[in-house]
Structures are given as structure tokens and as C-alpha cells.
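Progress note, project year one: complex with manganese (II) ion.
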Amino acid sequence: MTTYLFPPPPVASLPVRGKTEHFPVNRLFFVGRNYHAHAVEMGKPVDKSVERPFYFTKAPQTLTLSGATTPYPSETANYHFEMELVLAIGKPGFRVKADDAHEIIYGYAAGLDMTRRDLQLVARDKGRPWDLGKDVEHSSVCSEIVPMPGVVIEHGAIQLSVNGAVKQQSDVDKLIWNIREIIADLSLFYHLQPGDLIYTGTPEGVGAVQPGDRIAGSVEGVGGVELTVGPEA
Ligand code: MN
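Model obtained:
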């Protein structure tokens, strides 16, 4: 039996609606610019006819369960919310055909891709990696997983409010690359595994939060996600 010099980090996991077992989280993938109106507000419109989706990853250690209060992060003056539908993978998949994509879906969740927008944009415009902007401690907020094996979500309202004021309001039917297309494309690059989560992108209306702000988002048919932003720590 392996022994360790110090306690290894715990396995990241999420509760599952209706089950006592948790969903053990493997990798966190994020689709960039996957709603036209958000791509436009970022100054980078997408032409699906000539472009492919792109991705970034965050460490599983950034996973934060919905309902938490997390510290305002260091080294930013523009900490943004991004409301997203999260896809939970339940079976292995490599080079999955779009028509077969439903076979590896375990379920869904509602998530927040919290972002140091100032640092992300500097990195983007200088051609540097996005890690300091995106791989922020506590920034991958996620609800419980809702088991919906084999179900492909094609529409449903997605919205987010801050302190009760609606900031983001769209529909999952506006995804540029839909659930089947994301699985087919991402699985060309990665052997998808049970426990992988895919944050599918954010609609327009992203904006900054301040310490004390309370974020509440939801995806119709899936559920809600909440986060309170605490003081810098
Ligand atoms: Mn995002």
C-alpha cells in the first residue's frame, strides 16, 4: 500500500440528486465563445462555417459546490460571472460520433465559470495562456448533478441574477456548438472519461461582482446554482 509524506488532496466530487453516492469529478473542460451574443460582447464574433470550437481547462481543485461563499480573488479588479449548463460524462468516449453522443451522457448541472476578466483579456490579447484569468481558485462553481442518462438537452431557459437583478437571460438552444457537437469534437482530442465535466459556454450579459454580492443562476429542467462573493482572503 502506498504511503504519503502528507495527506493527498481529497477527490473532488459533487452530490447527485436522489442518490447517496457522490459523482467523482475527473477533469473540468470549458467551451469558449459558444453563444453568438456573448462572442460579440467579447469583441470576437464566431463564424461556425469556418471555425471550430475551442476549450480551456481548470484544475478539479477549483471545483466549488453551489451555495458556498468564496473569497474575492487576488490580483483582479474585474471578477466576472458566467452562467453555464454543465454536462456530466458517465462513460468513456473517444472519437464519439455526434449521433452516438447521448450514450456517454450521465447528466447535467448548473454552473458558474468565474473569471478574472481583466487578466483573461490581457492574456488573450498578448497571445498568452488563460490560466491566471480562468483557473482561479474556487472559480468552478457547480450544483448537484442531475442524472439524465442518455438525454440530450436541446433547449431551456438559462438565466443569472446578481442581488436579485437579472443579468443574463438566454436559451440553451442558442449554443453555437450543441451538446452532440461538443462531445463529438472534444472527444477527438481527449479520451473522455466518467467524471469529466464540460461547461458548455455562457450567454451574453456577463459582468463584474463585488464582495457581498449574491449570484443566483438556473437552467430550466436542470436546477439552480448560487454563490456569495466574500471579502478578499
Ligand atoms: Mn465560460
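The mean pLDDT is 97.
The chain is about 15% helix and 35% strand.
No further modelling is planned for this target in the current period.
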